[in-house]
Amino acid sequence: FMAAPTLQQPSYLLANLKADATTKTLLQRCQDLVKIIDEYPAKELHLIFPWLVESVFGSLDGIIAGWNLRLLHSRSNEYNIVMEFLNPSGPMMNLVYKLQAEEYKYEIPVNYLPGPVKACIQQGVLPDCPLFHNKLQFPPAGLLTLNLALNPFEFFMFNFAYCLITPKCFPPGQHGSSTDSAYFVLVDNYLKYFLPSEGSVPPSPFSDSRGSVTAPSPRSSSVSFAGYGVHSPSLLKHHIFHQPSVNADPAAQEIWRSETLLQVRPLCNWLPFQEPFSPTEEHVLVVRLLVKHLHAFSNSLKPEQLSSSPSAHSHTHTSPLEEFKRVVVQRFVQQKLYLFLQHCFGHWPLDASFRAVLETWLSYIQPWRYTGEKTNPQQEQNRTVPDKWESFVQENLLMYTKLFQVFLNRTMRTDLVNAKNALMVFRVAKVFAQPNLADMIQKGEQLFLEPEHVLHHRQPRGYLTPSQGGSYLSSRQRVMTDMVFRVKSHVYALEGQDCQYKQMFGTELRAAVMKLIQIIAQAGHTAKRISDHSNEVAANNSFLSWFGMGSSDTNTTFPGAEQEESGECLKKTHEFLDRALENLCQIFKLNQGQLSQLISNLGSSQDDGNSKQLPDCIQGDNGLILTDLGRRQIISGLRRFEIHYQGDPELQPIRSYENALLVRLFYKISSLVNNRFGGHMNALCSRPDFLGRLGRHYLSEQETTTKLKQSPMTQRTLERNRQPRLSLRPLASYRTILLLLLFYVFGALLSFGPVSSTLLILTGGFLYGLMMTLFGDKLKTH
């Protein structure tokens, strides 16, 4: 632990910069800063550095927005200015290096660290991360005011990473960044610069005697864990700021920036800062960018360095950067990403935005996609996973098996009629159906299930001869023992010693897959039915709807459909689900006969008539209650509750076959008449004689009572007693207007004037009402 630093003197340079921040444009301020960084000594620059970092990235509490890098896009005038200033080799980074050459430290309150890390520190436990070694300091106020003293590079990277998760108040109509924002592009640039796939990290332009590190001793490729669930120490366990070395390897001296970048970014991006932890889509996209780049960085390891023979390393010098590539994914990504994805799988909404999380997962479990090799897209589809990736699959077994099971459970609660959700199921099935991958996963599970006595012959370091107290083991035994130990160590490290492992190819999960196949088949059938129904409605209404002769029902969409799920979208849904079924059968080795049997077991639930039945419910005290089966039936569009409009018919939304101007005009006229003569109408319709019946025909609805027997909310009957009234809304229909126009034209051809035609129309309407009043009851009976 370190003591609190002495108070700093006020800076006139800082005061001038703060004043310029309110009067000068961003371009002018950046130009001034470039000159200041070049001309002023580190002593003066040290005083402005914390303020400058806060001005760029915003304050840790989110009150100061900074330059809003997450909202700054390439179409903005300030984009190029910001990118040039913050470039990895730009003025801001030169300032960092200039301060790095001195012994300056900058404080970060422990309260801004992720919850788990903060809790450890406040309990007096130092997290197992070099970022915290010899960095903690606290003033006399007590533990709750602990600070972390970081060097300039660590301080800069911490604020840059924290910028992504800091809650900020964005302007109305604006949200977080996309993949073309300044923030996202800067993340990409920093990763490429400090984790280069080719060459080495460019050296700092300033000498840094305190930033050197002794090159780590060559690391044996064999696993050297002391026991299950125990990770090996950090690659640079003796961190550069703890052991200064004047005669350090220049290459090793530059590795610390790469490691710091990976310590800070996962720390801020993958660990929960508050409860509940709710990562955003923007957050996930940055994590995926990191995963993809680290795979490319790791896969750029030189072929001669891929040898797993321990003897190969004893005679060959491995550069720190190459050694870093070997261990970077397992050491800096695996555990944090596993917990991050598990949280997202369990808490993300059941909608299409989950695609970002899904693609992050699929990117991690397919490192062979980021080897830099150019392949034909057609060959890529049927490309066999090379055997060299078997060890990666085994050492990341839970990433494949456990997350697949979580995805399976999630999919069963998802609306697969939606084309975007169907696409996600297809994507996962396609990835796991890659030739050789399922066999690798199955072999990994078999290794994990090997009995414990297999490990009794394992030696902690190499394999000793009998004269050294060891025993001869065949090469095959050594390899098998090592593989078993790797898999078990991985599983126990992530899930604990007492975990209950469920096999991906076991009986329980296979039954769940069978159930998913049935759900997929149901959704595919529903999508086809919706598509056929929509096409029929469109064909029937394409011409007649203009005249009002089509369906007058506003709910012409088939149950289960959404606005984007029509036409081509539903065709895509059917295609995605069909291909997903094929891939699932390939993964779990189901033949066509088994698939046909599963689909045929759906029984009557596949019948078209079933869509008219109520969803599965149970009778409760207050009415019908949906069961889990009923919810799935509604989500899949197999069944629905009939919904009827229960409001005032005069106030229904204006339909496409009605003239909006006439609807509003006739409503005003009828409202005036009803208000003026409502009492007379009520008296007329209350009469029991023929005039009363005739009045009710023209002034009342045909049904005065509607029973809602199909609502899951209540069993009660709603009575709607409406007062007699005049309704002129039917005259606003284009169909009525067209018929009246045709009648007037026909009357004109017969030498009838407008007045005569109007009298004939009124007379015909009166006679029709008279006939319906006299014989309506008999017609209804028949």
Automatic annotation (TrEMBL):
Entry's localization field: Membrane
InterPro entries: Sphingomy_SMPD4
Topological category with respect to the lipid bilayer: Single-pass membrane protein
GO molecular function terms listed in the Swiss-Prot or TrEMBL record: sphingomyelin phosphodiesterase D activity
Annotated transmembrane regions: 732-752, 758-776
One GO cellular component, as annotated: membrane
Superkingdom of this protein's organism: Eukaryota
Protein name, UniProt field: Sphingomyelin phosphodiesterase 4
Organism: Sparus aurata (Gilthead sea bream)
Gene name for this UniProt entry: SMPD4
